[in-house]
Amino acid sequence: MAAIELRGLTKVYPGGVKALDALDLVIPDGEFFALLGPSGCGKTTLLRTIAGLETATGGAVVIGGRDVTGVQPGGRDVAMVFQDYALFPHMDVTDNIAYPLRIKKVPKGTRREKAAEVGARLGLEHLMDRRPGQLSGGQQQRVALARVMATQAQAYLFDEPLSNLDARLRLEARTFLKKLQRELGVTTVFVTHDQAEALAMADRMAVMEAGHIRQIGTPSEVFQRPANTFVAAFIGSTPMNLLDGIVRGDTLEVAGCKVAVPDSAAGLLSDGEQIVYGVRPEYLAYSAEPADGAFGGKVAIVENLGAAHLVTLDVGGVSVQAVVPEGSEPAVGDDGFALPRRDRALIYRNGELV
Ligand code: ATP
Question: pLDDT tens-digit profile of 267-306?
């Protein structure tokens, strides 16, 4: 087990794409760390550079205090699960899981025992004699995970580990994987497109954009206090409202409405300054009656979220979205008012959190 440290890590692909731009990151020993960001932001490149499958153009990768920047993948003592699993088609599940142990010359009996134990943890016990061609995509993915988890390594690297599971299995696998990682205590970095997955599983996470890390924090820090408008817009199943505004004395003018300065920005704003006002749709209280400090407008769209509705208000040409509990949703065309929570709203200045 070991901490992973990246120092000024840069990767420029032939042809000039800068996939990683001088990244600094420390992942402490035993942490479950998620890399999240839009397609093409450099997540897979970062994982592959830690594994040694890509050569860094600049900077250093340090694992367990050892600079491994120039070390071949086999010498880094990390185990990686790939998006395409890379299972051996001619071997059964037991042999696939036990393969890395065979390479390490672990005796056959011990190998089979270990494969059975890890296979059982991943719900594969009834499939141990099958070959990959006889398994579903999700089962193959679990075999690939089991193979990595049967290996003693200083760190595990997972690229989209749950991407081929259906929605229900995916939820189960999240809980399972988090529990397993905690029991094993092995430093784990996983890449995901799925923010719900990152929020649910990670101890901490990094949100990347175009080769840069835009925020590092616990899931609740990143959700509650996005460090900039990029992260604010990216995180959240319904995107945060990000509204242009201006400071007017000790209140704000946002979308033509007079709203209160959020608690977190109290005393930090200057009269007349331009700001962006951020509030998640979950943190606006919707009402049919006017209220001081509320956004008032006409209901433009009502979307069903299942247990709640997402209401889009047209506030003088600006859209403001609020989550409204099931049963109290308005109709399109109604007058509506949405009162933001002062303890949850945020202010951004030049794109950065105040
Ligand atoms: P996704 O979520 O779509 O898998 P990602 O965040 O993992 O994306 P990367 O695959 O790391 O992103 O790619 C980062 C950037 O580097 C992209 O612009 C991509 O086009 C480019 N890139 C990736 N691999 C290569 C390569 N072998 N040669 C040239 N450019 C590459």
Answer: 999 999 999 999 999 999 999 999 999 999 999 999 999 8
Q: Is the pLDDT of residue 94 over 90?
A: yes
Give the Å distances, CA to CA, from 326 to 62, 94, 294, 313, 323.
51, 49, 21, 17, 9
Mutate which of 11, 45, 80, 213 for ligand 1? The one with the most ligand atoms within 8 Å of its CB, which is 45
3-state secondary structure of 1: coil
- Rounded Cα distance, 286 and 340, in Å: 9
The answer to whether the beta carbons of residues 46 and 23 sit under 8 Å apart is yes
Is the CB of residue 49 below 6 angstroms from any atom belonging to ligand 1? no
Which DSSP state fits 328?
Answer: -
Report d(CA 336, CA 29) in Å as an integer. Answer: 50
pLDDT confidence tier of residue 1, bands split at 50, 70 and 90: low
Q: How far apart are CA 251 and CA 337, in angstroms?
A: 18
CB atoms within 10 A of CB 86: 11
ipTM: 0.97
Instruction: From residue 158, give the alpha-carbon distance in Å to each of 17, 48, 84, 94, 177.
Output: 23, 10, 11, 21, 11
Nearest Cα residue to atom 19 of ligand 1: 40
DSSP 213-247: EEEEE-HHHHHHS-SBHHHHHHSSSSPPEEEEEEE
Q: Tens of pLDDT along 194-204?
A: 888 899 899 99
